[in-house]
Write a structure and sequence with these properties.
The complex is a heterotetramer of chains A (229), B (347), C (113) and D (543).
Chain A lengths: L3 E4 L4 H7 L7 H36 L1 H8 L4 H26 L3 H32 L1 E2 L3 E2 L9 H37 L9 H26 L5
Chain C lengths: L3 E4 L2 H21 L7 H21 L7 H27 L21
Helix pairs in contact in C: 1-2
Chain D lengths: L8 H6 L10 H5 L4 H29 L9 H37 L7 H24 L12 H5 L4 H28 L12 H33 L12 H18 L2 H14 L7 H14 L15 H29 L8 H24 L1 H7 L3 H31 L5 H28 L13 H31 L48
Helix pairs in contact in D: 3-4, 3-5, 3-17, 4-5, 4-7, 4-8, 4-15, 5-7, 7-8, 8-9, 8-10, 8-11, 10-12, 10-13, 10-15, 11-12, 12-13, 13-15, 13-16, 15-16, 16-17
The complex binds heme-A (2 copies), dinuclear copper ion and copper (II) ion (CU).
Chain lengths: 229, 347, 113, 543
């Protein structure tokens, strides 16, 4: 496959501006940033991992109660949100590509599109949360006792809590991500990025995709499994 | 000076061993300690000898040495083999600690901030005091009303956490009559240090005497029967003619078919759950939400009484085939004593 | 260390995007089919494929150094360790209490038969 | 040391270094120089150590009499805050955030850590966490023990659990960032020629520590978050009353906190490798094995956490697995102990203060580690869990091990950090006091523990008094042993003789630059051409 490769370091004048004093070369700086970002993502994997482990334990402990909770999940909204996030991932990676090609207009366009998708996701999530609130399915704050399946009243509470905890943490990451994108947008507007310097776009892109991956697991686990029963 | 000498002479350095467990755990403890001392001596000797012999006064010029794979392998594999012995030995004791003999007499313990409540099959109750006969395996079934506690008798070298929401068990066979400490060893709040008591190990005859003294309220099962009637369990579970509720006769220790297709054994934990969270496991052929939830209304102690009663509704099976179940529960106050002669005869 | 960054082709990216959307539809569709315990397996398998696609192409793991790949694998491995060992407790807890066909030792709970 | 004579104070007094290059509090609080951040950390963790130590002194006073001198409430808050402060605000950052922060860039031949601003951020997070913890103390403290076990911490405790938990949470992120920085620095910032097999063992061990920090700490963060939710809203996740499982909390907690005990020992092991080799004037015996054992510890540390839960009701089969895995993690520690000892063989040993601490470390860590085997053995853990035996075990490894290593490292690199020597006689005296005080404090606790005295008791049966008095007496000696170095270290800042580049005649990049170093450490990037610990040509290969 033909891969376009742009060697960094062809235009030294630009580089020096962004080379921090303690690095020898821009390549070293870029490598360090990439490795640092991936290391950070590993911590994120384990952070969410704690919740996934709790989820796995309780799901296995209370299978039926679990099945009952997924009947309250809105598969349409959840599915739409999955698609929205996947689209945002596409626009994000296109934004990175635009930055790599020094295409400022495309960069700005795709950043804005990514943010729009991100916001759309949050809005849809907001509607879902609202529906849960109305139905009294928010443990600890507004819990109406799970009257339709009183036999699961206790255990469903735990599982709904995990739902809110996991999607809430995910949403929080989205909010942070949108903040970071705003920062990128400003920088892009100021013509900071070009083919020689686009590390921030790439790093924040990694973060954004990671958040997408989390959702890719949340969607089937919370919405799909057992929702028919 | 003299006073401090006296204190030192009185210093207890090693706990009494008053149970069968204590002996075997001590043996392992000394084994590990001996290995530890040996290894410590080797390391210290090595350090000392090298420090002296190769002190820069005596040995001003160091010889540079790369290392030695053979040595490295020796001192990683050899210690590991020794540790494997510790593991195997320890695993054996651990397994035994978790498998009480079938003829163990059963006593019930409820931990609560900050006291231990003890219930005997004959209905006697005590707080922060446990009486057991010499030579008889005793199994404790333990529950907690609130937080995690841990039931510990150092002289017996037994200990197990008491988790809220579970039954935990431990067992021992006391070997030495005496008066021993009973501690809570899992931090449980302000008076954690006050959650202590005494274990009295009595000769079988004394124990029989002691046992015949108490129990004015009837046996555990009888107390359970009262509760069974007071809480309205009987209306459903014994008198119900419409088949809305399962009949509890002969339930204990039998497999139960659940509505979700699983089969469970109706042991203590299952019955406890059936009372405190009836919807957790629905018996096949019955409806959820019929049986009221008794959480918060029935204490762990009462649950123990109810279980004893439900047990007593089962015809006793021959001893060889019973699990932890034991006949005395069904019968009258002297039940606890009835089990003893057999136990004592072993010694 | 490599001193260049890989620029993916738009077509590749769009194809991956299409695959992801299709997979989302598929996993939703499959969830309406009764497969018993297989439902969760299928759902997770699809999720793993989707996540791998995102990581491999969008995040560019494919084009990175083997060190980065090692780190990614390590992160997942550790997640696996946590879930597996935790589960080993929950899964085997009942073994002591419910006598197994292969065990004749005295259980902590009642014996069968 | 002989090399002391080579220094030329008049010249060095004029030299610009990282300390005098800028002045004013702003130049410190906004610095991104890893060395200045290390100094900030030294000051802050020392403060926290004394706060935690003061609490230990207070509750040791309480334990002088069987009934206890304070109320149960006070006692419980004292030991909980002692554990929390000592673990999360002293020992976890102790060597990594101070010595390693200072030395790793220099040792690998770099100008700074990979992410200097993140390094500063990590200090601020630490301070924020510490302030939260102090706030909890000031408001009345927390009484859950450092382990925060549910459901006590979520439902029953009416102390300042949330403030303390968020403090730990915040400090956790500081620890993650430190670890992340180390990992990237070691991978990407090594000078030309500084191959992995030439890295000083101190770098190896801190790299391994970094892995644990990065892989483990996030789980602590989420666990504390779940705990906080449970406490605030009673959602039931750890509440047995509605089907939550308190044991799950323990799984999640120990998934971090067991590896964390190796965060609290690996950097110390690195320090000891440096010191032993320097004062034996000899390359370390079996470099590869020592380096590799750090990595083995880091990896295996993640699969043994269940040994804290043997008698909680954890499955017996899991207990078996965790037990054997615990023995496996002990093997790499054994390798290290043997190699340090073997390093002295045919060396040329001298007994400067750092070496005294190294001796203390090896001896006390061995004892602490071996008693860890009593605990890892299933049968004997039944008899020792929850007693002072455990307390003695972990103080032997944490105080006898890591704090000794920290002290040793501070003495070893003090000349590099400050450019001054500390007073030799006083420092040897203090080391001796620490050693005696330590053993007097904690050895009796092994005996107490097997006698059955439970930990976290504010009052105890009278027959335990004698041993407790011994232990309290030891603690006061130990306290003095820690105060003396404080005094002479501060004294030496102004009055200590100038140290020169390399007072110990040690090998290693950090000894080839001036003391204190300049802001960018090296005038030009060094090119490394030799192995670590090159104290002379190789003369012998054993075996
Ligand atoms: C720095 C911290 C540190 C370190 C390094 C260790 C090291 C070890 N620890 Fe420790 N531990 C703690 C800190 C630490 N621990 C803390 C804080 C607690 C209590 C937490 C709480 O509840 O509050 C605890 C509790 C604890 C328990 C739980 C006890 C209980 O609550 O019931 C166990 C059980 O297995 C254990 C085991 C071990 C083992 C096997 C090692 C091993 O890594 C040790 C390995 C070292 C050696 C073995 C010595 C050197 C080897 C040789 C000289 C070779 C020769 C050996 C042979 C031939 C056998 N520890
Ligand atoms: C990580 C490090 C660490 C360190 C360094 C220490 C240091 C010490 N610890 Fe700590 N300890 C823990 C970690 C640590 N501890 C943990 C994790 C627990 C478990 C908590 C729990 O159960 O939740 C514990 C519990 C614990 C207990 C058990 C409490 C109980 O269970 O009831 C005891 C009892 O003796 C104790 C004693 C000491 C002593 C005497 C020191 C000494 O080494 C301290 C020496 C320092 C000083 C003495 C301070 C310096 C001197 C001064 C400030 C001058 C004195 C000034 C005046 C008196 C005015 N500790
Ligand atoms: Cu109950 Cu401690
Ligand atoms: Cu541990």
């Amino acid at each position: 496959m033909a891969e376009t490769v742009v060697p960094a370091g062809t235009e030294p004048a630009v580089e020096e501006v962004h080379l921090r004093h303690h690095f020898a070369t821009p390549a070293q700086q870029m490598d360090a940033a990439t490795l640092g970002m991936w290391t950070f993502l590993i911590t994120e994997v384990l952070f969410f991992g704690g919740m996934f482990a709790s989820y796995a334990v309780y799901r296995n402990m209370y299978l039926d109660a679990f099945a009952s909770t997924s009947q309250y999940m809105n598969v349409v909204l959840g599915g739409t949100n999955t698609a929205v996030l996947i689209c945002s991932s596409l626009t994000m990676v296109l934004a990175v590509r635009a930055a790599q090609l020094s295409n400022r207009r495309h960069l700005i366009l795709f950043l804005i599109l990514t943010m729009i998708f991100g916001v759309a996701f949050l809005v849809i999530k907001g509607f879902e949360y609202h529906a849960k609130w109305v139905e009294g399915l928010v443990p600890g704050l507004h819990w109406s006792g799970y009257t339709e399946h009183p036999e699961f009243a206790y255990h469903a509470q735990i599982l709904f809590f995990l739902y809110f905890c996991m999607t809430g943490m995910h949403a929080l990451h989205m909010v942070v991500g949108i903040g970071l994108l705003t920062f990128l947008l400003v920088q892009a507007y100021r013509r900071v990025f070009n083919a020689n310097y686009f590390a921030p776009v790439e790093m924040i892109g990694l973060y954004w995709h990671f958040v997408d991956i989390v959702w890719i697991f949340l969607f089937p686990l919370l919405y799909l499994i057992g929702h028919r029963r | 000076m003299l006073a401090s000498m006296r204190i030192l002479a009185d210093l207890p350095l090693f706990p009494v061993a008053a149970s069968e467990q204590a002996g075997s755990i001590d043996a392992l403890y000394w084994f590990i300690t001996a290995i530890s001392i040996l290894m410590t001596v080797i390391i210290f000797l090595g350090l000392g000898i090298f420090a002296w012999k190769y002190h820069n006064k005596r040995h001003p010029h160091a010889t540079q040495i790369e290392g030695s794979t053979k040595l490295e392998l020796t001192w990683s594999i050899l210690p590991f083999l020794i540790m494997l012995i510790m593991f195997g030995w320890g695993a054996d004791l651990y397994y035994k600690a978790q498998t009480p003999p079938k003829d163990a007499m059963e006593i019930f313990v409820t931990g609560k901030q900050w006291m231990w409540k003890i219930q005997y099959p004959d209905g006697t109750r005590e707080i922060n005091a446990l009486h057991v006969p010499v030579g008889q395996p005793v199994k404790l079934t333990m529950a907690s009303e609130d937080v995690i506690h841990s039931f510990s008798i150092p002289a017996f070298r037994v200990r197990h956490d008491v988790m809220p929401g579970h039954y935990n068990t431990l067992w021992f066979t006391a070997t030495k009559p005496g008066h021993y400490h009973l501690f809570c060893t899992e931090y449980c709040g302000d008076q954690h240090a006050g959650m202590i008591g005494w274990v009295d190990v009595l000769e079988p005859r004394e124990y029989a005497n002691w046992a015949s003294g108490g129990a004015s309220q009837g046996s555990l099962a009888e107390q359970g029967q009262k509760l069974f009637e007071q809480n309205g369990c009987a209306t459903c579970h014994l008198l119900d003619q419409q088949g809305r509720c399962p009949i509890l006769r002969g339930l204990y220790n039998k497999p139960v078919q659940l509505a979700d297709g699983r089969t469970v054994i109706a042991d203590d934990a299952y019955i406890r759950e059936s009372i405190l969270d009836p919807n957790a496991k629905i018996v096949a052929g019955f409806q959820p939400n019929v049986m009221p939830n008794f959480k918060g209304q029935i204490s762990e102690e009462n649950v123990i009484q109810l279980i004893a009663y439900i047990k007593s509704l089962s015809p006793s099976t021959p001893a060889s085939q019973q699990g932890s179940q034991q006949p005395p529960v069904v019968i009258a106050p002297k039940a606890g004593a009835a089990a003893k002669p057999g136990g004592a005869a072993q010694h | 260390m490599t001193t260049h960054s890989h620029i993916p082709r738009v077509r590749t990216l769009v194809l991956v995007w299409l695959a992801l959307i299709c997979a989302t539809g598929m996993t939703t569709g499959v969830s309406y089919v009764e497969l018993g315990w297989m439902n969760i397996v299928v759902a997770l398998l699809i999720a793993v494929v989707k996540a791998s696609l995102v990581a491999w192409i969008f995040m560019g793991v494919r084009y990175t150094t083997s060190l980065t790949k090692l780190f990614v694998v390590a992160g997942l491995l550790w997640l696996g360790i946590m879930i597996l060992l935790t589960f080993s407790d929950y899964h085997t807890r009942s073994w002591m209490y419910q006598p197994q066909p292969w065990s004749h030792g005295p259980g902590n709970g009642p014996a069968t038969k | 040391m002989a090399t002391l004579a080579q220094r030329s104070p008049e010249v060095e007094a004029e030299e610009v270094n990282y300390l005098n290059v800028e002045h004013g509090w702003k130049s410190w609080l906004l610095t991104t120089d890893h060395k200045r951040i290390a100094v900030l950390y030294i000051i802050s963790i020392t403060l926290m150590f004394f706060v935690g130590g003061l609490m230990a002194v207070l509750f040791r006073i309480n334990l002088l009499v069987p009934e206890g001198l304070f109320s149960a409430e006070t006692y419980n808050r004292l030991f909980s805050m002692h554990g929390i402060i000592m673990v999360f605000f002293f020992l976890v950052p102790s060597i990594p955030a101070t010595l390693a922060n200072f030395l790793i860039p220099i040792m690998v031949g770099a100008k700074d850590l990979a992410f200097p601003r993140i390094n500063l951020l990590s200090w601020y997070l630490y301070i924020a966490g510490a302030l939260l913890a102090i706030y909890a103390v000031v408001r009345g403290g927390v009484d859950t023990g450092w382990t925060f076990y549910a459901p006590f911490s979520t439902t029953y405790s009416n102390s300042y659990v949330l403030a303390a938990a968020f403090g730990v949470f915040t400090a956790g992120f500081s620890s993650i960032l430190t670890g992340l920085n180390f990992i990237v620095t070691v991978h990407k910032m090594r000078a030309p020629g500084m191959t992995w097999s030439r890295l000083p063992l101190f770098v190896w061990s801190n790299y391994a520590t970094g892995l644990i920090q990065v892989l483990g700490t996030p789980v602590l963060a989420i666990t504390l978050l779940l705990l906080a939710f449970e406490r605030i809203a009673h959602v039931g996740i750890f509440d047995p009353n509605i089907g939550g499982d308190p044991i799950l909390f323990q799984h999640l907690f120990w998934f971090y906190s067991h590896p964390a005990v190796y965060i609290m020992i690996l950097p110390g092991m690195g320090v000891i490798s440096e010191i032993v080799s320097c004062f034996s004037r000899k390359r370390i015996f079996g470099y590869n094995f020592v380096a590799f054992s750090s990595m083995a510890i880091a990896v295996l540390s993640f699969v043994v956490w269940g040994h804290h839960m043997f008698i909680t009701g954890e499955s017996m089969y899991t207990g078996l697995a965790f037990s054997i895995l615990s023995f496996m993690v002990a093997v790499p520690s054994a390798i290290k102990v043997f190699n340090w000892t073997a390093t002295m063989y045919k060396g040329s040993v001298s007994f400067d203060t750092p070496m005294l601490y190294a001796f203390g470390f090896i001896g006390l860590f061995t004892i602490g580690g071996l008693t860890g085997l009593h605990l890892a053995t299933l049968g004997t853990d039944i008899a020792t869990h929850g007693t002072y035996f455990v307390v003695a075990h972990f103080h032997y490894v944490m105080v006898g091990g890591m704090v000794m290593a920290f002290m040793g490292g501070m003495h070893f690199w003090w000349p590099k950090i400050t450019g001054r020597m500390y007073p030799e006689a006083w420092s040897k005296f203090a080391a001796l006091i620490v050693f005696i005080g330590f053993n007097l404090t904690f050895f009796p606790q092994f005996i107490l523990g097997y006698l059955g005295m439970p930990r976290r008791y504010h009052a105890y049966p009278p027959e335990f008094q004698a041993l407790n008095v011994l232990s309290s007496a030891g603690a006061s000696i130990l306290g003095i042993g820690y105060v003396i170095p404080m005094v002479y270290f501060i004294w030496s800042l102004k009055n200590g003789p100038r140290a020169g580049k390399n007072p110990w005649g040690a090998a290693g990049l950090e000894w080839q630059i001036q003391s204190p170093p300049t802001t960018f450490n090296f005038d030009e990037t060094p090119v490394v051409t030799e192995e670590a610990y090159n104290y002379g040509p190789l003369e012998e290969i054993v075996g």
